[in-house]
Design goal:
single chain; two-stranded parallel ribbon
Length: 220
């Protein structure tokens, strides 16, 4: 349904505009030039992340601090096609999916670092489509950079990590996320098992109540 897709895109862009100033947006929402523009890394944000643009500012700040040659791209122009897929428009979904890969190729990157779990799910598990260059989740990429990162503040907090575990790739991403959290001084963990009822809220609608989880405050 084109109207429904347009509404979702409009909401994403509206939220981005309400939560960020134009000068704060270092990510690209437009297509790359046809003649190409090289960057070592494409940081692929997806489109739904625009609803939480503070997360983009955080991850790009880390990339900047590491001195990486990268371009962050996202928004409707770089949609993976899952929105159209959910709306039943298979051809539009396929066209958008392939167009985004074409845009990646224009940057001639060495690696694609992917942020959005729904995009990863759609490329990996639905389309089963390979990227033109090696790709991995942002958590995996950042975990590999831990030897280059110096933490300057303690965070006295207790956290639980929900992660997907349905295949090796998802378990690898979960391990990377945990490694990043464990590297933060002062942080401690409350163990929970992966709960399949909590899935990708953007990719799949949940029509049943979520399971009850223990109150972390009771475990202190």
């Amino acid at each position: 349904m084109p109207g429904e897709v347009a509404r979702q895109y409009g909401e994403m862009l509206l939220t981005q505009n309400l939560t960020t100033m134009p000068e704060e947006r270092t990510w690209r929402l437009t297509a790359p030039p046809r003649e190409g523009e090289h960057h070592d890394i494409v940081l692929y944000l997806g489109c739904n992340v625009l609803r939480t643009s503070h997360m983009i500012r955080t991850v790009t700040a880390i990339f900047d601090r590491l001195g990486l040659d990268y371009i962050a791209v996202g928004g409707p122009t770089y949609c993976c096609g899952i929105v159209q897929h959910r709306s039943g428009d298979a051809q539009a979904s396929e066209d958008i999916n392939l167009r985004t890969i074409e845009y990646f190729e224009r940057y001639s990157p060495r690696e694609i670092v992917m942020w959005c779990p729904s995009c990863i799910y759609f490329y990996d598990e639905v389309k089963q489509r390979k990227m033109p260059v090696p790709s991995r989740h942002a958590a995996e990429f950042l975990a590999s950079k831990l030897p280059e990162i110096t933490f300057t503040h303690r965070v006295e907090a207790r956290v639980a990590l929900h992660a997907h575990a349905q295949n090796e790739a998802r378990r690898r991403e979960a391990a990377a996320g945990r490694a990043l959290l464990e590297a933060v001084p002062g942080l401690s963990f409350f163990e929970i098992e992966p709960e399949q009822a909590i899935r990708r809220a953007f990719a799949l609608a949940i029509h049943q109540p979520l399971p009850a989880f223990p109150d972390l405050r009771e475990t202190r």
